[in-house]
Design brief:
Layout lengths: L1 H8 L1 H5 L11 H61 L2 H10 L14
């Protein structure tokens, strides 16, 4: 009878080893799958966090560059407006015209259609 008993138990029982799932049936596989799933989920969360941090940082860098450019353009606009006002000043125009030998029109030189 002993011999028949050994044959029915299988090879692992003869050698005194337990199955890979610890003899718990299918429960060990579920725990392993859950552990791997949680590990993958944690890696995805860390990756997404790093990506969001990079996106925020690059967005802030771009915003700072735009603000710097805006400041430069506003300063240039102010300088150009000041120069325009200087060039359009009546005294300057009359002075430049006098240097070129130009003079204001006399009475009767202007005709309107």
């Amino acid at each position: 009878m002993m011999r028949d008993d050994i044959g029915r138990r299988g090879g692992m029982a003869r050698a005194g080893r337990r199955p890979a799932d610890g003899g718990r049936g299918g429960e060990g596989v579920w725990f392993k799958a859950l552990g791997v799933s949680l590990l993958v989920l944690a890696l995805i969360a860390v990756g997404a966090g790093l990506w969001v941090a990079w996106a925020v940082r690059s967005g802030l860098d771009e915003l700072a560059a735009h603000q710097q450019r805006r400041h430069e353009m506003l300063e240039q606009n102010r300088e150009l407006a000041e120069r325009r006002d200087q060039l359009l000043a009546r005294e300057r125009i009359e002075e430049a015209a006098a240097e070129l030998g130009l003079f204001p029109p006399r009475e009767g030189q202007i005709r309107y259609p």
